[in-house]
Amino acid sequence: MWTRSGGARAKIANMRCSYRSGVALCAVWMAVSSLPASGPPAAFRAVPQQLVRASSEVVRLAQEAGRAAQRYERGLRVVNDQRSQVRRIAHELHGQRVVSAALRQDAGAVARAQYRTAGFTASGGLAPAEAADPVELLELQAGETDRRERLARMLIEADARSRRLAAEEGASADSYAVVDADVTRMRGEKAELERRLAKARSDLNGMAEASIRSGRCTPVDLDGLQSEIQDNRGSVDRAAEISPSGWTRPLLSYELTAGFGGTGARWSNGHTGQDFAVPIGTPVRAVGAGTVVSIGCGGPFGISMVLRHDGGWHSQYAHLSAPVVPQGRRVRAGEWIGLSGTTGNSTGPHLHLEIRRSAEFGTAVDPVGWLRSRGVDL
Question: What share of the chain is helix, strand, coil (3-state, %, to 5)?
Fold first, then answer.
């Protein structure tokens, strides 16, 4: 097993001791730090560069997959609307054709009656044979003529409307076929991006574990991707919702899972923070303005960061796949400080957030209630 220089190993040992309880265990780490120096293998020396590439790929693909999902959802709404329109027109056309058929049937009955009565039909009044004089016969003839004319006009209008609806039905069906083909294409693009994103997240997780094994959990430079996301005011500002007192959520979207104070086999003294279920590589943000005072590399918290805020409060972000700001950096509320992961004592991708009264363990408070009291609802 390779070792680092005594000073570097001692620094790592001290950092690891800060995330463990028990003097004996810390003593073991300090003893390891004094082993003879030798350089890390080439594979471990290449880990930071590989981690940068893996992190960048996850962030880029996550953005692309998000945009593809939005396009697909918009297209799906369009195709559903178009399908509804096709069905509505088809229903109207069917009804109009029923009306036309009824009118034709009525016109046929009129024609047959005229043939039998030499041009007269009985429509609720006197039959021609019952007319008392020529005037009554002329009045009856005029009423029947008006009825035939109205019936003819109605039939012409019904046929014209049927033709218009049939044309609309054809055009709507053609339009539906086009948008349906577009949605099918977008569905394929979305599935392919999700497949590539899943692989990239798996690669990032492997790189994160390798960086812990190498003892080099250094912040990664994502070549402007952080600035691109930070400057995307349309999505960040509305979602971050910085409270009037200057605090915000550590993630833009998430699912709350294990809460503060929970018990279980993985927490010997109870759960000391709040867990947020998110995919690997999700940008993690500072809950408030502060200074990065430490970056952990290994142990139960895996890759982790601790920020010091005004008033002596500290926030910790654990199980990361990579930090993206260095120790000593002053950060703003909502600023991107790392990528979520599943390193350390973790059963799945999530962020473990702790809020402590001081830098010392054992001073943790419920993050949900603490943030809520500062105007941030989780």
Answer: 55, 15, 30
What amino acid occupies position 8? A
Look at residue 264 in the predicted model and tell me its pLDDT.
61
Look at residue 325 in the predicted model and tell me its pLDDT: 92
Q: Which of 252, 240, 247 is nearest to 370 (CA)?
A: 247
DSSP, collapsed to helix, strand or coil, labels residue 34 as: coil
> For residue 350, what are the β-bridge partners?
277, 341
Buried b (16+ CB within 10 A) or exposed e, 216-226: bbbbbebeebb
Q: How many helices (H) and strands (E) does the chain have?
A: 8, 10
pLDDT confidence of residue 13: 38
Q: Are strands 330-331 and 290-297 parallel, antiparallel or unpaired?
A: antiparallel
pLDDT tens digits, residue range 312-361? 999 999 999 999 999 999 999 999 999 999 999 898 999 999 999 998 88
Entry pTM: 0.67
Measured CA to CA, the distance from residue 219 to residue 216 in angstroms comes to: 9
pLDDT at res. 161: 84
Contact indicator for 319, 342 with CB cutoff of 8 Å = yes
Q: Could you give the angle at the alpha carbon of 170 between the alpha carbons of 166 and 171, nearest 5°?
A: 120
What pLDDT is stored for residue 1 in this prediction? Answer: 31
State the DSSP H helix or E strand holding residue 336, giving kind and residue range, or none if neither: strand 336-340
Half-sphere exposure of 216 (CA within 13 A, CB side): 20
Domain 220-378 has CATH 2.70.70.10: yes
Stretches where the chain sits below pLDDT 70 are 1-48, 110-111, 113-144, 222-240, 262-269
Q: Where are the domains of the chain?
A: 1-37, 66-195, 220-378
Between helix 6-17 and helix 23-33 the angle, nearest 10°, is 160
Q: Determine the residue type at 144.
A: E
DSSP states of 6-26 as a string?
Answer: HHHHHHHHHHHHTTS--HHHH
Amino acid at 305: M
Instruction: DSSP for 100-155, please give it.
Output: HHHHHHHHHHHHHHHHHHTS---SSS--GGG-SSHHHHHHHHHHHHHHHHHHHHHH
